[in-house]
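[Meeting: bench + compute handoff]

Bench side (C.D.) handed over the final construct sequence. Compute side (W.E.) agreed to return the predicted structure before the next meeting so the bench team could plan truncations. Sequence as handed over:
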Amino acid sequence: MEDQQVPPPQQKQDMTECVAALEAALLPCLPARELQAIDRSPHPTHQIDVERHAREFMEAAKKLQLYFIGLQQEENPSEAETLRKEISAMEEELKTKSELIKRHEKLIQGWRTELKEQLDKHVTELERV
């Protein structure tokens, strides 16, 4: 069985739109022209700036990736979680039905007692006659 489940088309579209919006928000943090100019620069301090910006950008991208994985896992519970929920629901249903059976058994016992009393009355009346 595959661990990752494919999200529904609407959810994929929503995620894609969200990623596009986040990308648009993050890209200004990585000023491309400036970084390209610095990247070509012979000064070692400029190289460190490029690496720092790239590292910050990659850290932000990693955080986004983990966030979306977390969202997907929340919406698609594992098989074990699904089974736990089903077992819990079945246990609750069993409890409810057991209580119902006990009530019905009490009712049946009451009816048996009433029917025995009526039978005894009829037998007594028949014996008199």
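W.E. noted at the follow-up: DSSP finds four helices and no strands in the chain. C.D. will use this when planning the next construct.
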